[in-house]
Amino acid sequence: MNLHFAHLHCFGSTRRASGHKGSVRLRLWDMPETTLVLRTPGYTSSGEQEDATTRSRQFHFPYPTAYEIQLELMTALFEAIEQGKFGVFESPTGTGKTLSLLCSTLTWLQMNRQRHDIGEMPSTAQPEDQAEPDWVMAHEEAKQRHALQQQEEQLRNNLRIAREHLAEQRRRRESHRQPAKRTRREDDPPSDDDFLPADYDDEGTTKAEWPPTTATAPSDAFLSPEVRSMMQAYEASLQPNSLVEEPETRPKIFFASRTHSQLAQLVQELKKTPFGRAEEPVRSIGLGSRQHMCIHDGVRKWGRMFGTEAMNERCLEMMEGKKAKRCEFLPPRDAGGQAKLDAYRDHALAEVQDMEELVQLGKQLHTCPYFGARHSVRQAELVTLPYNLLLQQNAREALQLSLDDSIVLIDEAHNLIDTILSTYTAELTQMQIEAALSQVDKYLQRFATRLKGTNEEHMRTVQVLLRALQTFCAHVGTSTQALSSLTTAQLLARLGGTADQINVSGYADKTSLEEAGHLSKPQSRTQPMHAVEAFLLALTNKAVHGRVLLTKEATGVRFKFLLLNPSEAFQPIVEAARAVVLAGGTMEPISDFQTQLLAPGSTEKFVAFSCGHIVPSDHIVGAIVDTGPKGLPLEFTHESWQQPVLLDELAHALCNYSNILPHGMVVFFPSYASLDTTWKRWKQTGALERLARRKQVYSEPKEASQVDIILQKYAASIATPSSTSPKGAILFAVVGAKLSEGINFQDDLARCVVMVGLPFPHAKSPELAERMSYMRRASPSAGGQDAGRDLYLNLCMRAVNQSLGRAIRHKDDYAAFLLLDRRYARPEILSRLPGWIRSQVHEHERFGASIAAMAKFFRSKS
After folding, report:
1. Which of 284, 562, 662, 860 has the greatest number of CB atoms lying within 10 Å of its CB?
2. Lowest mean pLDDT: which of 273-287, 492-506, 681-695?
3. Where is the Helicase-like DEXD box c2 type domain (predicted)?
């Protein structure tokens, strides 16, 4: 791959580094001799900006010329990474955000590699009182550098051989393609045989349909002599000496997103770039859950029958080989097993592959892709993973993820704060306490004499805690005194202990606690024990500020642990990484990310970038509508949903808009309750029937399984309008439900997005009240701002912005945005709208003016 090498700045004379396909020029700057600062691509040595085509090429953009907003994003991101910032980057959907993120971060990674190749290497010098002479240290560093270079060359050679092997396999499959036999579908009913362990021969070796290593594959006859020779060299490199831990590739890029489908799209974008298509592509690996990566039929079916937790435990059992024979896909803990894992790693890193391809690779190599991918992380340059594996500290520790000096990039990060809070939320019910106590009692009765001393001590501690919780529940249930919340210290004191005394998180071995659950049925055994463990861990975690809410229910008392300060959970990531980047299509309001995710005193690390939309400004029109057709003020407060006259006014307004708005309209309500109330009223008055004479009417179902069906009907009504509903369709949706996040309404599917009211969270919610109270304590008022109220407004407007962002999906798209509530004109509300919408929004005090504006806009598009 012919790559551009941008300038590096250092103190010293100008010189040229060699050893690459290109060259790296060093320029004089007043900086310490050991500090090399990367110059941002797209600028000349004199600081002048290059033309768009040159800038695109220097960022390795896969198309001749990137859009200007893409170039601005790549430039700002590159500089944030180089300067070690905490950045929030907003780029509306349809602007090629993912491609820009990849090109910028990977360009920085490549240039940083060159920086180290030139000679800058972290010093291994000891403290002065133990330091060796300079010449000894120089010799040692040169020796280490040489060893690292040799190991890197060996890895690159392994990957080259693996690429040849993969290419040969593809050629062979193409030339010997045969109809595939029908295999059992995932949803076919299981047979009894599905729950039997794998067959083992007399020597304890698993019988398999494919060989355990690539060396014995029956495909050798199809390999060319050159490839066969390379494979022999490859096998030789995977001898017992591979058990020596290889150095970790640093820095890495950790690219996280919400769902596996979003990560799959990311990989497809990566394959378009020079980094993914190169002769030596970027070494990338994807991490996922067992649910997505397990290839053991019995474990997968166990998971479908009893749930994800049961699947995880089944896998752990088969790893240890206790209750079932050892999993046939998990390599043994010896040199041969290490060689199999190394073979998987080399094939996985040889090419850019998505999750499905990594799973298929595991089947071909007869090696577990779940553990094979984890084994590959150490030598990877780009790691893709879902949120939960990055945000949970115990998950990072289990995966041995080191974020040191790396770039952490979180896409679709608009809900990151809520995700962190929910990740560290733990609930425990009185019924779970009693079930878990029963399990622990029975377990100790049966196995106390066989438990090791430490494990018995831990089990006895849990038993005492559960009995204390049971007693506390009984007291709360019969008490007439109001008790709504406690600090963790207060609750622990009432249970008779402290965080130091009740240190459940210090378990060296949780086997006993887990085994206690195995005395009950599979579908019910794990939930109580896992709930107890999660709750006790939350209580004893000194690193976080939390609050425990208590509620009385028909079935007993419910405990709910709330994390109040998300920065405490996120700070370890910020401190370890070189740079942290939060990206999304709609990140406004941005202030929350600074105030809630950064530790006090770290504001200098914070940078924010927001670019405009890719569409021309005349493709967007927005209107804040203060009054309805009859002049009634439009203000949908919590109480106003019970006012029939206001609901009737809303119906008249939508009927009028339906006459002039073409194709699809998506109308968002603050909640299911408000939509249900309105729907009921409109059925009584005939308003729904009047709307249906203009546009076919649909409503978002509460059952997630029905959403796709409604969407298909909605799209069909727009594509082929009926004689009874000639103007397309209207879809009523709910803010925060499925249609407001992750569903794209492009082109005719959303020529207009309507927001009815403002989706403020319930002000009397105990969880929200605790968060607002904490924000007021942690952020004293400055400049007259109330931190609790800021949180309240931001929660509302983030939900609004996500809903508005469902429309405008590409550069030729266009849409109108109607904000039906006069409160949108308030500065504190208006300022929190995305910039690309805010600049096109106009307030209309009279309803007729908004009708005229909409009519004019759509006439210009016809």
Report:
1. 284
2. 492-506
3. 57-455
